[in-house]
Write a structure and sequence with these properties.
By secondary structure, this protein is an alpha/beta fold. It has seven helices and 14 strands. The chain has a ten-stranded mixed β-sheet with strand order 7-6-5-8-9-10-11-12-14-13. Strands 1-2 form a two-stranded antiparallel ribbon. Strand 5, helix 4 and strand 6 form a beta-alpha-beta unit. Helix 2 crosses helix 4. The chain is globular, with a radius of gyration of 18 Å.
């Protein structure tokens, strides 16, 4: 991925509109701003020149027969670095998550695992110029590509850094795009009251996306959103935490039974998963 690799031709308005209809229908997203963002942001500008490798699990990737942009304007996963299983993820999955995040115009979003920046740009369209999107990417080549790709959105900034350690900007929404076995304390610290954290809790590649909403005082509402298969987060997987998470998935109701996250209190009989300084409860706050 490089600044000169992205083609300058974008999809026609009709192709973008068709794509947005497909994504909105499959994700059942109702926010018209999300639909408009998928219609407007040129996916090809973030993926380099075609033909493109399309993920076809469990067999790997299939190369598109040509560089026809129509192959990108489908609900498909496109390989960025297929040899490392680093992809531009499924549009309907991201639309579902962004709908659940409830991003408002003017809000600040931290995007952990931004890749080449495509979904950061989508969120930038949703926040509008009055908002901010801080796109964090640990892979240096992808971070450089995101920095170049996101220049048409000056309120969206790419950063080459870890998203699971250090101090993060205060945020209304934190959207994590890599699987972790435990929730990073810096995410909970950065979330404003009323802020939303969407994170895939996974043991390796498989797990579930949960949404947490800060109520202040170390209390967060929790909601199971959907199952997922996603690349493990660099620095976000720990064998001991993964074993605890596996046990939580195996318990009756799994993580679908979780109703809250709590900090600063001793876990009680409602605890489904206990982390370093937090625990998930089956009881609502």
């Amino acid at each position: 991925m490089s600044e000169t690799a992205a083609p300058t031709v974008r999809a026609s308005a009709s192709l973008g509109d068709y794509f947005a209809e497909i994504v909105a229908s499959r994700s059942r997203v109702s926010d018209p701003r999300i639909k408009a963002a998928f219609a407007k942001v040129p996916r090809e500008a973030f993926l380099g020149p075609g033909p493109w490798p399309i993920a076809t699990p469990p067999k790997g990737y299939v190369l598109t027969p040509s560089a026809d942009l129509a192959f990108l304007y489908a609900d498909v996963v496109v390989g960025l670095f297929p040899e490392r299983a680093i992809n531009n993820g499924e549009p309907s999955f991201h639309a579902l998550c962004l709908g659940a995040a409830g991003i408002a115009e003017g809000e600040t979003v931290v995007h952990v695992g931004a890749g080449a920046g495509y979904y950061s740009a989508i969120m930038g369209e949703v926040t509008g110029p009055a908002g901010r999107v801080e796109a964090l990417e640990i892979e240096p080549e992808l971070a450089a590509a995101a920095d170049a790709n996101l220049r048409p959105w000056p309120w969206v900034s790419a950063h080459h850094r870890s998203g699971v350690a250090g101090v993060l900007p205060e945020a209304d929404v934190i959207y994590v795009n890599a699987g972790v076995s435990q929730i990073a304390g810096c995410w909970l610290d950065a979330l404003k009251r009323g802020g939303r954290l969407l994170v895939p809790l996974t043991t390796g590649w498989q797990g579930a996306v949960l949404r947490f909403t800060s109520r202040g005082g170390g209390l967060f509402d929790a909601r199971f959103l959907c199952p997922t298969g996603i690349i493990p987060c660099v620095g976000g997987q720990d064998p001991v935490a993964a074993e605890r998470l596996s046990q939580a998935f195996a318990a009756p109701g799994g993580l679908m039974a979780v109703r809250s996250l709590r900090r600063g209190t001793v876990p009680d009989q409602s605890a489904r998963l206990v982390g370093d300084d937090w625990w998930l409860s089956t009881e609502a706050v």
